[in-house]
Amino acid sequence: MVEAEFPTYPEGFPAGLIDRFLQATGARGVLGNVPASGTVIIQELGEEHLRTGFPIVYTSADSVFQIAAHEEIIPLEKLYAMCRVTRDKVCLGVDEVGRVIARPFIGKPGSFVRTPHRKDFSLSPRGETILDLLSAAGVPTVGVGKIDDLFAGRGLARVAHQESNTEGIGHIIRESAAMEYGLLFANLVDFDMLYGHRNDAAGFAAALEEFDVALPRIVATLRPGDVLAITADHGNDPVTPSTDHSREYVPVLWHTSGRQGRDIGTRRSFADLGKTVAEFFGLQNSLAGESFLPLVAAI
Hints:
This protein has helices at about 15-25, 40-50, 75-90, 130-135, 145-150, 165-180, 190-195, 200-220, 270-280, 295, and strands at about 30-35, 55-60, 65-70, 100-105, 115, 120, 140-145, 160, 185, 230, 255.
């Protein structure tokens, strides 16, 4: 839980920030520097990017500094290095954004498409996280998807990356079946990246259906006393006009086999889930939020 808002840039990045970016990365110039949809801006500026070699820099309603580049113009490792130096040496002080994001794409003018090689360079958490607590207590932790990117690599003993929801679901089933004790923390990014932000309601529905079909196989991996929690990090309605995050509230489902369901109400903070997980593992902590474990343990 953060105590101060991260900076956002509804008018694009200030000149001083762009100057620091150019100096630190060695780029000769930038394209864009506006809030934009990632899939739209590569169509608008991709051809000029091919001609100039300048990275496409843009933001959104979130606290992000996004760098898009064609994989044949700025190879992945070079793009990742550009993002690392932007994270470490450019986005500092009042410009300390939540994430610097590599947005590689391929294709030709008129048909540019983003690749699955996105990489997030997150600000290291400013305080102790549930992953830090678990790791310090010797509790095994596994991240599926971009969890290690989001937590700047902290608190995870093992990670399994993915290029699709389908691959991620497979990782969840295999890792859960093999794990006798610990926390498996997974993120299925297609809901957000491919469908929510793209206003693709049909694609979103198909992805939900795929997960629904897989859910019994996930539940079947649980041992007595295990818990499955399902939630989201934000709301992203695919039928609203905006391509930005569009819902303040998200569902939270807490499942233990053999227990009856009950309504735990509208929580005051998303931090309640981390607080509940900490109590579930019996960890002394000063995390923000209020545990709802007494409500679900009594079911």
